[in-house]
Amino acid sequence: MSDTKTRAEAAAAPATTPTPRRTGRRLLRSRDATIVYALVLIVILAAIFVPYFASVTTVSFLLIDAIPILLMAMPMALIIITGEIDLSVASTAGLSAALLGVLWHQSGSHGNIAVMFVICLIVGAACGAFNGFLIAVVGLPSLAVTIGTLALFRGLALVVIGDNAVADFPVSLTTFATSSIPGIGVPTVMVFVLVVVAVFAVILHFTPFGRALFALGYSTEAASFVGIRVNRSKFWLYVASGVISSAAGLFWVLRYSSAQSDSVQGLELSVVAAVLLGGVSIFGGSGSIVGVVAGVLIIRTVNYSLQLGGLPDTALTIVTGGLLVLSVVAPSVSARFVAARDRRARARLADAPAT
Amino acid sequence: MTRATTIDAPPASRRASSPVARGIGRTFASREFSVFAALAILLVVTTVANPRFLTPQGTKDLLLNAAIFVVMAVGEALVIITRNVDLSVGSILGLTAFSTGAVYSAVPSMPLIGIFLVGIVLGAILGAVNGLIVTTAKVPALVITLGTLYIFRGINNAWAGSTQYFVGNDPPEFGNLSVQVVAGVPLLALIALVVTVVFALYMFGARSGRDLYAIGSDPVAAELFGIRVRTRVITAFVASGALSGLAGVLYASRFNSVGADTGTGYELQIVAAVVVGGVAIFGGSGTVAGAAIGAVLLTTMTGALAALNVSKFWQQAIVGVLIIAAILITKIISVRNARRLRVSEAKNV
C-alpha cells in the first residue's frame, strides 16, 4: 500500500535526489496522505460524536453500500487520469441488472445463473467497447458521448425489462451478497472487491501501461510521440469500465434482491465525486488508487454517520455536493497561495543583492 | 441566424454569385436547418401514421411541453458556447418551482409579475454562485455544477421535506397562464419564443454576445484580445440560472404540483437538446435557435412515439441515439471544414 504511494509520488513530483528520509517526508505530506488523514479524522470524530457508530454493524452497513461505488470508481479513476470521463457507468450497471432479471425470469427462475452472469458481463463489455469505439477510434469528446450512452443504455434497460421487477432470485445468493465476515463485519463480497482494487492499483502504479496513462493525461501528443498507443489504451479502459460496471449492477440486484429498470440510477455522479475527492485531477495526469479508495470511504462515512446522527437523508445530498466542490476548489486555491508565496520569496531574493 | 458561426457555416458553392443565393445556400447547409428538417420529417411521418397527432389539442400539448425545455435550453446553450456546462439547471428549476409554491402559500395576493421576479432573481442568484465558483477556482464547470446540482437539490429536499404545493388554482390567474391562448398559440410557447428571439439577437449582434463565441473558441486568445472572460462567463451562468428560474415558474403553473424532486434528471435532457441542436460541446460554435429547435425535437419525439404506438420504453434509448448522432455530425462537419480550409490555404500560397 505505502509502496504504491511512493511510486505515485515519484511520478507526480519532479525527481530530486531521492534520499530515504526525503521520500518519507514527501509521502507524509502528499495529496494521498492528506486524504487518508482526512478519512482517519472523520472516522475518529464519528466514533466519538455519533452514537452507535463504533460497532461491527457500522462496518458492514457502511461498506456494503460502498461496494458498487468502489467498483465503478476503479476504471473511472484510470479514465479520468487519461483526461477523459465515463458518465455511462450507472446506466451500464442498470442495463446489466435489467438483463439479469429478464434472463432469470424467462428461465422460469431455475436456470443456470452463472451463465447469465457471464452474458451480462459480456453485454457490459460491449457497452464499454461502444463508448471506447466512439471516443478512441472515431475521436469524439468523451463527455458528450457518455452523456449520450448514459441515456442510451438506461433506455435499453427500460426496453429490456419495462415496468417489471424481478425479485425471486436464489436465496442462497442474495444472502451471500448481504452477508458479512463474522467478527469484523466486513461484507464477504468486499474480499472480491479488494482483489479488483488491487488489480487496478497494480495496473496503474506498477506497469508500463499504467505509467503511460499518466503521460496520456498530461499530453496526448507527447504520449503518442514517445510510442504510447493512445487510442488502444483508451479503448480498453472503456471496455474495463463496462465490465466492472456490469459486475456492480449484478451485485446491486443480489444485494436488494430486485432487478428493475431504475437499478443503480444516478450513481455515476457519486462515483465521479468520490474519484475527484480522492485527489484524481479532473484535468488528467495525476491521481492514485489509494486516494480514490479513501475518497469513496470518506463519502460513505460522512453519509452514514450523518444518517446515524439523525440527519434526514435529504441533507446528505448537500454534503456530497459540498465535498465535491471543496475537493476541486481546495487544490486550485492552495496552488494559488503557493504561487503567491513563491512570488513574494522571489521578490525578496531580487531585493537582496540591492541591499 | 446562420452566420452566427463562421466555423459551421460552410461557404456556398462557387457558382452562387448573388448574396441572396449565397444566403439561401448557407441556410440549407446550416446545422439549424438540418435539425429543423428532422423535426419536420418527424411531424409529417407521425401525422401520416396517426392523423390524431396534430389536432389543435395535440399541437397545444406539444407546444406546452416544449416551452419549458426551450427556455432552459437557451440558457444552457449560452454556457456551453463558452466551453462550460451547467448541470445544475434541473435543481435550479426544482428550487424555483418550489419557492413559487412557498411564496403563494405565504403571500396569496402576490401579483403575477412579482412571482416571475422571484423565480428569475432566485435562479439568477444560483447561477451567479455557479459562475463565481467556476471562474474563481479555475476548475472545469462540469465538476462544479455537478456539485451544485447536489447542493441545490439538497437545499430543495431539506426545505420541502415531504411538502407538496399545489399552485394551479390558487390564485387562479397563475394556473390560467398555462392554458391561456394568444392568437391560437399557448402563452407559454410565446414566452419561450420571445426568450429564444431575444437571446438569438443578443448572440448574433451584441458585442458581448459575440464575445461568448470567442471565449469558447479559445479562452486564452480571448483573454489576450482584451475580452473580460471572467465577467462574460459569469454572465452566461447567471443567464442560464435566470432562465431555469423562469422555467421553474412556468413549470409550477403548468404542472400544478411542486415538491422536493421536481426537475430531477432534467439536466441531461437539456444538455442533450443543446447538443442535438448543433451546439458543439467544446464551445465556440452553435446557435441559441438551434438549441431551441433541439429542445422542441426531443419533446416532440416523446409525443410522437406515443402517437405511433411505439412502446414508451424506447423513448430514452432513442434520445441517446440522437445525442450520439448529433455529436457524430458535428465531428464530420468540422473534419470537412478543416480539410476545405487546408485546401484553400494551399491554393493561396
TrEMBL record, chain A:
Cited InterPro entries: ABC_transp_permease
Segments of this protein annotated with the region Disordered: 1-23
Topology versus the membrane: Multi-pass membrane protein
Transmembrane segments annotated in the record for this chain: 35-54, 60-80, 87-107, 113-136, 143-161, 181-204, 211-229, 235-254, 266-299, 319-339
Ranges of Low complexity composition bias in the record: 9-21
Superkingdom of origin: Bacteria
Keyword Transport: yes
Subcellular compartments: Cell membrane
Keyword match Coiled coil: no
Key words, A-Z: Cell inner membrane, Cell membrane, Membrane, Transmembrane, Transmembrane helix, Transport
Cited CDD domains: TM_PBP1_transp_AraH_like (cd06579)
Matching PANTHER family: ABC TRANSPORTER PERMEASE PROTEIN YPHD-RELATED-RELATED (PTHR32196), AUTOINDUCER 2 IMPORT SYSTEM PERMEASE PROTEIN LSRD (PTHR32196:SF71)
Protein name: Autoinducer 2 import system permease protein LsrD
TrEMBL record, chain B:
Stretches that traverse the bilayer: 33-50, 62-80, 87-107, 113-134, 141-159, 179-204, 233-252, 264-282, 289-307, 313-333
Localisation: Cell membrane
Listed Pfam families: BPD_transp_2
Keywords attached to this entry: Cell inner membrane, Cell membrane, Membrane, Transmembrane, Transmembrane helix, Transport
Membrane topology of the entry: Multi-pass membrane protein
InterPro entries, alphabetized: ABC_transp_permease
UniProt subunit comment: The complex is composed of two ATP-binding proteins (LsrA), two transmembrane proteins (LsrC and LsrD) and a solute-binding protein (LsrB).
Functional description taken from the UniProt entry: Part of the ABC transporter complex LsrABCD involved in autoinducer 2 (AI-2) import. Probably responsible for the translocation of the substrate across the membrane.
Protein name per the record: Autoinducer 2 import system permease protein LsrC
The species this protein was found in: Frondihabitans peucedani
